[in-house]
Amino acid sequence: MTPLEQSGTATAVETSRLEKLERIWRDPSGFWGWFTHVNHRSIGKRYMVTAFAFFLAGGVLAALMRIQLARPENHFLSPDLYNQIFTVHGSTMMFLFAVPMMFEALAVYLVPLMVGNRNICFPRLNAYSYYVYLVGGLLLYSGLFTNTGPDVGWFAYVPLSGPDFTPGKRADIWAQMITFTELSALAVAVEVVITAFKMRAPGMSLNRIPIFVWGMVIVAFMVIFAMPAVMLSSTMLLMDRTVNTHFFNQAEGGDPILYQHLFWFFGHPEVYIIFIPGTAIVSTIISTFSRRRIFGYTAILLAMVATAFVGFGLWVHHMFATGLPQMGQSFFTAASLMVVIATGTQVFCWLVTLWTGKVILKPPMLFALAFFFVFIMGGLTGVLMASVPVDLQIHDTFFIVAHFHYVLIGGAVFPLFGALYYWMPKITGRLLNEAAGKWHFWLFFIGFNMTFFPMHILGLRGMPRRVYTYPTSMPWGNLNFLATLGVVLMTAAVLIFIANFFWHLKRGEIAGNNPWGASTLEWATTSPPPVYNFAELPTVNGRDALWDALPNQPIVEGLEEDCRQVLMTKVMDADPDCRHEFPGPSPVPILAAIATSIFFISTIFTAKLFFPTIILVGITLLIWYWPKRQPSLRRKEREIWEQ
Amino acid sequence: MGTINQPRPVLDVSRTPTVVFGHRSVIWWGQFGLMLIEGTMFAIFIATYFFLRTRDTDWPPGFSLPALKWGTINLSILILSAIPNQWLKKKSEEGQLGAVRIGLIAMSLIAIVNCAIRALEFPSLNCVWDGNAYGSATWTLIGFHTFHLVTDMLDTVILTLVMFFTPIEGRRFEDVSVNSVYWYFIILTWIATYLVIYWAPRWL
User: What is the pTM of this model?
Assistant: First the structure.
């Protein structure tokens, strides 16, 4: 046990202090209490469970599509239902699973623990973001179940999604689902940036922030600059459809290409928003399971920043087939190839870490290593497609489907499963079963390659994307059947994981504080952590907080413990700066989220409700803000103004 | 608590301040995040406007030019309002309740006047949102700014009420200071929006 880790034994004085801390930081239990939670781990777990449920739902839709495509001239699904299913599958995986899981869930749960603090910044906004996300997801599925599921592809290109070609409410539901989920991601992005910049344990200067937290900060900034583009484009689409604006209507001076520019200005960074957390997870797992510090901390960090910057200059490579000027295409080809430099840097740093470390092959590590294989495969086909002539040849074929599943499942789902095996002991206090983990891994790895590798060949043989079925005469039947068989293996793998999860809740081995001997601060506290995260707030003496701790590493003292006061530190060196009191449990986040949902959903149907419903939102925000008398008086008595 | 029995060295933070301003304040950071997001939206929307400009030879296509009067009056008021705004920000950071109350009333009135003039601006745009893409872009851009203007007007009015009717603590002065920062955002985005809406059709 390192000096920073906290043991379970305590004196009577300490016990009474901990009971008091528990009373102050605990959120109420019970049915109604559930709606007032503001603890970041409580909200983080909800994000995880909800995003995983949407992953399963998206997976079921994928399986339905694979059954439909398993043999030629199949009529398992109707063409219309098939269109809804591939749209909802893509939208679910991108907006309801990938970003909420890789960014919101992991960042909300882990970042405050990793920087050694007691909650995330703006805890009520955090709870609000969750409810908004949940309603957005339910909206999409209520559409699907009432035969109003969007059927215009996950990017809802105009003119297909415009008022002329898609009457009804299908595309509007898609557009507002975007508003819900992006609002939620933007709220979490702001919280994560502030938590990482202002709430770090004393001593954790910028160059000692764990790579995982850096990854989340970089993603948060990408969210802040990318998501507004899609909120705007989907709002403009909604306005074209409901109040007769003409942004994308060529007859009145609009342009459908504008939609593609706006969408991909978000859409390409979105890919990196999904896989940068994946690389941050891999860096963390590889360091822990190679039993050494990560090689090239600064290089990895700069590579992530470079990927983020370059990620904003690539969007046009999704539009090579739209007939843009050749000069522009060359620029975007070059920029697309540049990403390889940054990603390559990270891969080489991981290889050196592995090479010079003592590798332990536990399930988290297996998934991290599979990430290498799968993601690099996807990256290589990506390099091919950055070339305009190749892109034009394979555009809208199954080759593209193969490519982005290699990148996204390789870049996000494999690291995610690694992360779940790695951090589950912290979340639940017990280890997942290792043998089951290995079964899960091999079935998923083999099933994944069986499903998606044949799609490369199908694409090269000319099979277009988004077709409902294909004639027997095309040479596609066998490979499609193979791909569908792979889904069986992946399904089995995920079922094993779910069974393992429920098994481990009762029977898993007790984890203890730090089962992997890892170096970051979340392992300094008990598993699961108490409601106040750390009984003694830690200080940090090096880049690997637990490995570098002094035998008598100081602890933080002097916070008021009869309210939820937290320590704020300075941005650069994390010296103590000031103290701030966080709010306690509250029903206002859910009230505001309900009002927001009424506002967003009403605009699908009529513009007339715009003002009444937005006033409703305003009222809930007013209740949210209006100061409470008692806490104000208490704070007033003790306040110290800055000099 | 730890593995050793002797007391651990401590870092005592009990004398650090609880009322801070500018980049030390959490609320300021939250506001900063919001301005980054909203600023990005303005930037992307203005880019959209100019993209649509390239799709037509005439600009404005099929409408007469927007009349300058009310927009320019609003611009002048907004730019001049920076003076009382800065004074209010300074007084809030000094914790002077009386001055802050006066400043808030003044800024509320200014914001209400801005909103009233804004209502007169819409007819003087000389176009409709459902006429063509130019009209859609113009109305949406000014509508987006109006949304922010009205929001900050309401914020300022509510803060005024709070400073009169609830117990005063240091945090409220942080709120006032941050609200003043947001008013600068309103001014800056209006300068950009004004130039695009009223002058881009004249210059381009």
Answer: 0.96
The mean of the pLDDT values for chain A is 95
Residue labelled with tokens 């087939």: A321
pLDDT of residue A517: 95
A-chain residues near B42 (CB < 8 A): none
Which domains, from first to last, does chain A contain?
Answer: 41-518+570-581 (1.20.210.10)
Quote ipTM for the complex.
0.95
Task: Locate A289 and state its tokens.
Answer: 């399971």
Please state, in angstroms and rounded to a whole number, the distance separating the CA atoms of residues A198 and A221. Answer: 15
H helices of A580-625, in order, are: 588-605, 610-625
Residue B2 reports pLDDT greater than 80: no
- Which residue of chain A is at minimal alpha-carbon distance from B54? A253
Beginning with the edge strand found earlier in the chain, give each strand of the sheet holding A537-538 in spatial order. Answer: A537-538, A555-557, B10-12
Check if the beta carbon of residue A21 is closer than 8 Å to that of residue A535.
yes
Give the whole-angstrom CA distance, residue A196 versus residue B168: 30
**Which amino acid, one-letter code, is at A8?**
G
Residues of chain A neighbouring B139 (CB-CB closer than 8 A):
245
Q: 């309401």: which residue's tokens?
A: B154
If contacts are CB pairs under 8 Å, which of residues 241-270 in chain A contact chain B? 243-247, 249, 252-255, 258, 261-262, 265
Residue A528: asked if its preceding bond is cis (omega within 30°), the reply is yes
Distance from the Cα of B105 to chain A's closest Cα (Å) equals 18
Tokens, residue A292: 């050494």
Q: Residue A165 has which token pair?
A: 């070609």
Q: Does pLDDT of A386 surpass 90?
A: no
Is A318 within 8 Å of A269 (Cβ atoms)?
Answer: no
Task: Tell me the helix, strand and coil percentages in chain B, rounded to 5.
Answer: 75, 0, 25
To the nearest whole angstrom, how far is the Cα of B167 from the nearest Cα of chain A? 6
- Which chain B positions have a beta carbon within 8 Å of A245's beta carbon? 129-130, 133, 135-136, 139-140
CA distance A204 to A569: 9
Kindly give, in sequence order, each residue whose CB lies less than 8 Å from that of residue A275, ignoring residues fewer than 6 positions away: A102, A375, A407, A408, A411, A412
Q: Would the CB atoms of B11 and A555 count as touching at under 8 Å?
A: yes
Amino acid code (one letter) for A43: I
CB burial of residue A127 (10 Å; 0-12, 13-18, 19+): buried
**Segments making up each domain of chain B, as ranges:** 38-51+65-203
Query: Cβ of B30 and A190 within 8 Å?
Result: yes
State the Rg of chain A over Cα. 25
Confirm if B77 and B113 have CB atoms less than 8 A apart: yes
Mean of the pLDDT values across residues B3-19? Answer: 83
B46-79 pLDDT per residue, tens: 999 999 999 998 999 989 999 999 999 999 999 9
* Cβ A1 vs Cβ A513: under 8 Å: yes
Closest CA to B85 of B60, B110, B62: B110
Find out whether A350 and A372 touch, Cβ atoms under 8 Å.
yes
Residue of A nearest to B21 (CA): A642
Beta bridge partners of A566: A580
| pLDDT, position B7 | 73
pLDDT for A8 beyond 60: no
> What's the angle, vertex CA A441, arms to CA A436 and CA A443, rounded to 5?
95
Q: What percent of chain A has pLDDT over 70?
A: 98
Closest CA to A48 of A101, A111, A114, A93: A101
CATH of domain B38-51+65-203: 1.20.120.80
Is A333 an 8 Å CB contact of chain B?
no
Beta strands in chain B (DSSP E): 10-12
Q: Which helix (H) or strand (E) holds A134?
A: helix A123-145
Lowest mean pLDDT among A136-140, A336-340, A408-412, A583-587: A336-340
Mean pLDDT of A266-295: 96
Question: Are residues A167 and A83 in contact, defined by beta-carbon separation less than 8 angstroms?
Answer: no
